[in-house]
Specification:
Blueprint: H1 3-17, H2 24-39, H3 45-55, H4 58-67, H5 71-81, E1 86-90, E2 93-97, H6 99-118, E3 123-128, H7 136-142, E4 147-154, H8 157-169, E5 176-179, E6 192-198, H9 201-204, H10 208-218, E7 219-227, H11 235-243, H12 250-256, E8 260-266, E9 269-270, E10 278-283, E11 304-306, E12 311-313, E13 319-321, E14 323-324, E15 327-328, E16 336-337
Parallel strand pairs: 3-4, 3-6, 4-5, 6-7
Antiparallel strand pairs: 1-2, 1-9, 7-10, 8-10, 11-12, 12-13, 13-16, 14-15
Helix pairs in contact: 2-3, 6-7
Length: about 350
Amino acid sequence: MDNTQNIGTHIKEKQTQIMVPKTWNQRIWRIKGKFDKAIGLFVSNAFFEKYRKIIRNEERVLIKYERMAGKYIEYYRIIQKDQTPKPVIFDNNPAYKSHWKTNTKRIETVAAIMSSLAGENSFSLIEVGAGELTTLVPLLKRLEGQVSASSALELAWSRLEVGKKFAKEENITIDQYIKASALKIPLPDNSIDIVFTSHCLEQIGKKSEQAISEMARIARKYIIMVEPGLEFVDKYQQKINREAGRVEEIDKQIKQQGLDLIRHELFPYCNNIFNRATLYVIEISSSQSNEPDLRCPCCEQELNYVEQGGYLHCDSCKSLYPQIKEIPCLREEDAILASAY
């Protein structure tokens, strides 16, 4: 039996396991299905939609990733050393490759897309939902000399803090760290050449349209997203994503906002064969350009640095934002109303 057949058997085994719900979010949808079958009545989707929003909201995502800060770097170091072949998607085909080799090809592919879009021009880059920088750091290595300024935006402060240490270990400099929400990015319009996400929207769920709108607002030229979409995957991955409350119909959300989707295809490399990502490339081509100065997430006005205490202050709405170890905390919830400051 060749590798492809082996992987096919592995996939079928996993697909049967998918039928067993593992989370409360999956269980509630399974309960709904049983109600429908048992009593032949339609159970209101509104109730389950409300429940799903409660389960996957920004506060819960923040708590989850704060608690697991460092785990992605730990995984990165493990796969660096472990060259054991495992079932993956490699060049759009099932294969047995090490996770490190597949991840390297993933980074190379994203870097090649960015380089081809930028041509000979240097560009500024931000990753939204940068996590522990285990994608952004190797990406900047591949793009050496091409990126004029780099930024990392992440919801969880602790992930940025461990990511800073990881970047230092890898001899990579990130110019700007921002603790903030993808739903309210504290940057001016048209201030970053290329906005990039990798598996960020899947955590946002039903509010992904708002995040796409925010990325389109701050982008000057392109948005590149590598996100689990449902358009090109089989019914098993669709089932997993829906039960987990993840985002659906990303392509439709993009088009409904009048954005120009110039590439839309399955991403060719993936370590998790049941969470395949789709590539979305959006062209912005704005004639306007602003500096990426930090803005108040409450009123969108420019922030002023206060040397005494190292705070950021908004003269307009009188909000004060802390900086912890040089990482500005710029969620709306981080604001301290300080009119007398």
